[in-house]
Amino acid sequence: MSTMNLVLSVGEDCRIVMVEAGGGGNGSCSLEQLYACCDLAVDSAQRTLVAIKQLSARAGKPKKSLQPIAGQQVDKPWLIDDELTGAIQLYASATLGELLLDKDLDKMAFDERVANLRHETVDNLRQAQCFQEDQLRFFDVAFNDLLKKALRDQVFNTGRRRDGRALDELRPIDCSVDLYPSLHGSALFQRGQTQVMCSLTFDSRQAAFRGDMFSLLNSGGMVKEKKFMFHYNFASFATNELSSARGIGRRELGHGALAEKAL
Protein backbone atom coordinates (compact mmCIF):
# COMPACT_ATOMS: atom_id res chain seq x y z
CA MET A 1 0.00 0.00 0.00
CA SER A 2 1.28 3.46 -0.87
CA THR A 3 0.54 6.83 0.70
CA MET A 4 0.65 10.18 -1.04
CA ASN A 5 0.57 13.75 0.18
CA LEU A 6 -0.43 15.86 -2.82
CA VAL A 7 -0.62 19.66 -2.74
CA LEU A 8 -2.02 21.62 -5.68
CA SER A 9 -2.25 25.36 -6.22
CA VAL A 10 -5.23 26.00 -8.47
CA GLY A 11 -6.47 29.18 -10.11
CA GLU A 12 -9.67 30.11 -11.85
CA ASP A 13 -10.96 28.14 -14.85
CA CYS A 14 -9.47 24.93 -13.39
CA ARG A 15 -5.89 26.03 -14.07
CA ILE A 16 -3.23 24.14 -12.09
CA VAL A 17 -0.48 26.54 -11.07
CA MET A 18 1.74 24.33 -8.91
CA VAL A 19 1.99 20.67 -7.94
CA GLU A 20 3.95 19.32 -4.98
CA ALA A 21 3.80 15.73 -3.85
CA GLY A 22 5.42 13.32 -1.46
CA GLY A 23 4.78 9.68 -0.77
CA GLY A 24 5.83 6.58 1.02
CA GLY A 25 4.94 2.97 1.57
CA ASN A 26 5.79 -0.15 -0.37
CA GLY A 27 3.25 0.27 -3.15
CA SER A 28 3.16 2.54 -6.16
CA CYS A 29 0.74 5.12 -7.49
CA SER A 30 -0.40 4.79 -11.09
CA LEU A 31 -0.90 7.74 -13.41
CA GLU A 32 -4.64 7.09 -13.43
CA GLN A 33 -4.74 7.41 -9.64
CA LEU A 34 -2.65 10.58 -9.80
CA TYR A 35 -4.98 12.10 -12.41
CA ALA A 36 -7.99 11.21 -10.27
CA CYS A 37 -6.42 12.91 -7.25
CA CYS A 38 -5.69 16.03 -9.31
CA ASP A 39 -9.27 16.14 -10.62
CA LEU A 40 -10.62 15.88 -7.09
CA ALA A 41 -8.29 18.64 -5.86
CA VAL A 42 -9.21 20.95 -8.76
CA ASP A 43 -12.95 20.50 -8.13
CA SER A 44 -12.50 21.20 -4.42
CA ALA A 45 -10.39 24.29 -5.15
CA GLN A 46 -13.04 25.70 -7.49
CA ARG A 47 -15.63 25.50 -4.72
CA THR A 48 -13.21 27.28 -2.39
CA LEU A 49 -12.62 30.02 -4.97
CA VAL A 50 -16.37 30.54 -5.34
CA ALA A 51 -16.71 30.87 -1.57
CA ILE A 52 -13.86 33.40 -1.49
CA LYS A 53 -15.54 35.50 -4.18
CA GLN A 54 -18.84 35.40 -2.34
CA LEU A 55 -17.16 36.50 0.89
CA SER A 56 -15.32 39.27 -0.94
CA ALA A 57 -18.56 40.50 -2.51
CA ARG A 58 -20.27 40.69 0.88
CA ALA A 59 -17.49 41.97 3.13
CA GLY A 60 -14.54 42.83 0.92
CA LYS A 61 -13.16 46.31 0.42
CA PRO A 62 -12.51 47.77 -3.04
CA LYS A 63 -8.87 47.83 -4.07
CA LYS A 64 -7.17 51.19 -4.22
CA SER A 65 -6.21 52.39 -7.67
CA LEU A 66 -2.96 54.24 -8.27
CA GLN A 67 -3.67 57.86 -9.03
CA PRO A 68 -0.85 59.79 -10.75
CA ILE A 69 0.21 63.10 -9.30
CA ALA A 70 -0.94 66.09 -11.31
CA GLY A 71 1.59 66.97 -13.99
CA GLN A 72 3.48 63.67 -13.69
CA GLN A 73 3.28 60.54 -15.79
CA VAL A 74 3.19 57.08 -14.22
CA ASP A 75 6.24 55.06 -15.23
CA LYS A 76 5.40 52.09 -17.43
CA PRO A 77 8.57 50.07 -18.09
CA TRP A 78 6.72 47.80 -20.51
CA LEU A 79 6.15 50.79 -22.81
CA ILE A 80 9.79 51.19 -23.82
CA ASP A 81 10.71 53.60 -26.56
CA ASP A 82 11.31 51.73 -29.83
CA GLU A 83 14.20 54.07 -30.61
CA LEU A 84 15.94 53.05 -27.38
CA THR A 85 15.47 49.37 -28.19
CA GLY A 86 16.82 49.90 -31.70
CA ALA A 87 19.85 51.80 -30.41
CA ILE A 88 20.69 49.04 -27.94
CA GLN A 89 20.44 46.46 -30.72
CA LEU A 90 22.71 48.57 -32.91
CA TYR A 91 25.41 48.84 -30.24
CA ALA A 92 25.15 45.44 -28.55
CA SER A 93 23.55 42.80 -30.80
CA ALA A 94 26.72 41.90 -32.73
CA THR A 95 28.88 41.53 -29.62
CA LEU A 96 26.12 39.68 -27.81
CA GLY A 97 25.84 37.24 -30.70
CA GLU A 98 29.58 36.52 -30.48
CA LEU A 99 29.30 35.87 -26.74
CA LEU A 100 26.43 33.44 -27.27
CA LEU A 101 28.50 31.48 -29.79
CA ASP A 102 31.58 31.29 -27.54
CA LYS A 103 31.29 27.82 -25.99
CA ASP A 104 34.50 28.28 -23.98
CA LEU A 105 32.85 30.80 -21.64
CA ASP A 106 31.48 29.28 -18.47
CA LYS A 107 28.49 30.81 -16.68
CA MET A 108 30.46 33.24 -14.51
CA ALA A 109 32.67 34.39 -17.39
CA PHE A 110 29.63 34.85 -19.64
CA ASP A 111 27.78 36.88 -17.00
CA GLU A 112 30.85 39.07 -16.52
CA ARG A 113 31.20 39.73 -20.25
CA VAL A 114 27.49 40.55 -20.53
CA ALA A 115 27.76 42.97 -17.59
CA ASN A 116 30.70 44.71 -19.29
CA LEU A 117 28.72 44.93 -22.53
CA ARG A 118 25.79 46.42 -20.63
CA HIS A 119 27.98 49.18 -19.15
CA GLU A 120 29.71 49.89 -22.48
CA THR A 121 26.38 50.19 -24.29
CA VAL A 122 24.81 52.64 -21.86
CA ASP A 123 28.04 54.70 -21.82
CA ASN A 124 28.00 54.89 -25.63
CA LEU A 125 24.37 56.02 -25.61
CA ARG A 126 25.16 58.74 -23.08
CA GLN A 127 28.15 59.94 -25.08
CA ALA A 128 26.08 60.05 -28.26
CA GLN A 129 23.54 62.25 -26.40
CA CYS A 130 20.69 60.70 -28.35
CA PHE A 131 18.52 60.05 -25.30
CA GLN A 132 17.66 61.93 -22.17
CA GLU A 133 18.15 60.46 -18.72
CA ASP A 134 14.43 59.88 -18.23
CA GLN A 135 14.54 57.62 -21.30
CA LEU A 136 17.71 55.81 -20.22
CA ARG A 137 16.13 54.79 -16.92
CA PHE A 138 14.45 52.01 -18.92
CA PHE A 139 17.79 50.88 -20.36
CA ASP A 140 18.17 47.81 -18.11
CA VAL A 141 14.68 46.59 -18.97
CA ALA A 142 15.30 46.98 -22.71
CA PHE A 143 18.74 45.35 -22.50
CA ASN A 144 17.36 42.38 -20.55
CA ASP A 145 14.63 41.93 -23.15
CA LEU A 146 17.26 41.87 -25.89
CA LEU A 147 19.33 39.31 -23.97
CA LYS A 148 16.34 37.03 -23.35
CA LYS A 149 15.28 37.20 -27.00
CA ALA A 150 18.80 36.40 -28.19
CA LEU A 151 19.02 33.38 -25.87
CA ARG A 152 15.60 32.10 -26.94
CA ASP A 153 16.40 32.54 -30.62
CA GLN A 154 19.64 30.60 -30.26
CA VAL A 155 17.93 27.72 -28.46
CA PHE A 156 15.03 27.42 -30.91
CA ASN A 157 17.07 28.02 -34.06
CA THR A 158 20.01 25.72 -33.26
CA GLY A 159 18.50 23.25 -30.78
CA ARG A 160 21.50 23.89 -28.54
CA ARG A 161 22.00 25.69 -25.26
CA ARG A 162 24.46 28.53 -24.91
CA ASP A 163 27.24 26.20 -23.72
CA GLY A 164 26.69 23.84 -26.66
CA ARG A 165 24.63 21.19 -24.86
CA ALA A 166 21.58 19.67 -26.48
CA LEU A 167 18.19 20.44 -24.97
CA ASP A 168 18.03 17.02 -23.26
CA GLU A 169 21.71 16.92 -22.26
CA LEU A 170 22.78 17.40 -18.64
CA ARG A 171 25.91 19.12 -17.45
CA PRO A 172 28.85 16.86 -16.50
CA ILE A 173 28.13 15.15 -13.17
CA ASP A 174 30.77 14.03 -10.68
CA CYS A 175 30.24 12.38 -7.29
CA SER A 176 32.85 11.62 -4.62
CA VAL A 177 32.16 9.80 -1.34
CA ASP A 178 33.97 9.21 1.96
CA LEU A 179 35.84 12.50 1.81
CA TYR A 180 36.14 12.80 5.60
CA PRO A 181 36.73 9.48 7.41
CA SER A 182 35.89 11.01 10.79
CA LEU A 183 32.26 11.51 9.71
CA HIS A 184 29.71 8.72 9.46
CA GLY A 185 29.23 9.68 5.82
CA SER A 186 30.33 12.45 3.47
CA ALA A 187 30.03 13.18 -0.23
CA LEU A 188 30.70 15.92 -2.77
CA PHE A 189 28.33 16.28 -5.71
CA GLN A 190 29.12 18.53 -8.66
CA ARG A 191 27.09 19.28 -11.78
CA GLY A 192 28.62 21.94 -13.95
CA GLN A 193 29.65 24.74 -11.59
CA THR A 194 27.18 23.73 -8.88
CA GLN A 195 28.73 21.94 -5.91
CA VAL A 196 26.96 20.33 -2.95
CA MET A 197 28.78 19.15 0.15
CA CYS A 198 26.87 16.51 2.14
CA SER A 199 27.55 14.98 5.54
CA LEU A 200 25.69 12.28 7.46
CA THR A 201 25.49 11.54 11.18
CA PHE A 202 23.86 8.54 12.85
CA ASP A 203 22.21 8.61 16.25
CA SER A 204 20.23 6.27 18.47
CA ARG A 205 16.54 5.53 17.91
CA GLN A 206 15.73 7.40 21.10
CA ALA A 207 16.87 10.64 19.41
CA ALA A 208 13.98 10.50 16.92
CA PHE A 209 11.72 13.54 16.79
CA ARG A 210 8.28 13.05 18.32
CA GLY A 211 5.91 15.85 17.47
CA ASP A 212 3.17 17.33 19.58
CA MET A 213 -0.54 17.00 18.85
CA PHE A 214 -0.53 19.98 16.46
CA SER A 215 2.30 18.47 14.37
CA LEU A 216 0.45 15.17 14.25
CA LEU A 217 -2.76 16.82 13.05
CA ASN A 218 -0.91 18.98 10.53
CA SER A 219 0.65 15.91 8.92
CA GLY A 220 -2.69 14.15 8.66
CA GLY A 221 -1.65 11.56 11.21
CA MET A 222 1.10 10.28 8.89
CA VAL A 223 4.13 11.44 10.90
CA LYS A 224 4.16 10.16 14.46
CA GLU A 225 7.91 9.78 14.74
CA LYS A 226 10.57 11.36 12.55
CA LYS A 227 13.83 9.45 12.33
CA PHE A 228 15.41 11.39 9.47
CA MET A 229 16.49 15.02 9.88
CA PHE A 230 17.62 17.05 6.89
CA HIS A 231 19.35 20.43 7.14
CA TYR A 232 19.91 22.50 4.00
CA ASN A 233 22.17 25.56 3.92
CA PHE A 234 22.64 27.80 0.89
CA ALA A 235 25.14 30.60 1.42
CA SER A 236 24.37 33.87 -0.35
CA PHE A 237 27.92 34.23 -1.67
CA ALA A 238 27.41 31.05 -3.72
CA THR A 239 25.51 33.16 -6.27
CA ASN A 240 27.58 36.35 -5.85
CA GLU A 241 24.95 37.89 -3.57
CA LEU A 242 25.56 40.00 -0.49
CA SER A 243 23.12 39.61 2.37
CA SER A 244 23.30 39.64 6.14
CA ALA A 245 23.23 36.33 7.99
CA ARG A 246 19.84 36.55 9.71
CA GLY A 247 18.97 32.90 9.97
CA ILE A 248 17.40 30.51 7.51
CA GLY A 249 15.64 32.07 4.53
CA ARG A 250 12.67 31.19 2.35
CA ARG A 251 14.84 29.62 -0.34
CA GLU A 252 16.58 27.35 2.16
CA LEU A 253 13.27 26.27 3.66
CA GLY A 254 11.72 25.51 0.28
CA HIS A 255 14.73 23.77 -1.25
CA GLY A 256 15.36 21.85 1.96
CA ALA A 257 11.78 20.58 2.08
CA LEU A 258 11.95 19.41 -1.54
CA ALA A 259 15.32 17.71 -1.01
CA GLU A 260 14.07 15.93 2.10
CA LYS A 261 11.06 14.61 0.19
CA ALA A 262 13.32 13.41 -2.62
CA LEU A 263 15.55 11.54 -0.18
Characterization of the model:
It is a single chain. This protein folds into three domains: 56 residues, no CATH class; 77 residues; 90 residues, Ribosomal Protein S5, domain 2, CATH 3.30.230. It is built from seven helices and five strands; from the N terminus they run E-E-H-H-H-H-H-E-E-E-H-H. The chain has a three-stranded antiparallel sheet, with no helix packed on it. A two-stranded antiparallel sheet has the order 1-2. Strand 4 and strand 5 form a beta hairpin. Helix 2 packs antiparallel against helix 3 and helix 2 crosses helix 5. The radius of gyration is 26 Å and the shape is extended. About 2% of the residues have low confidence.
Task: Give the arrangement of secondary structure elements.
Elements: E1 2-10, E2 16-25, H1 31-59, H2 82-101, H3 107-128, H4 133-136, H5 139-158, E3 173-177, E4 185-191, E5 194-200, H6 213-218, H7 250-262
Antiparallel strand pairs: 1-2, 3-4, 4-5
| Strand tally | 5
What is the averaged pLDDT score? 81
CATH topology of the largest domain: Ribosomal Protein S5, domain 2
| Ends distance | 19 Å
* Residue share in helix: 40-55%
Strand order of the largest sheet: 3-4-5
Low-pLDDT runs of 5+ residues are 69-74
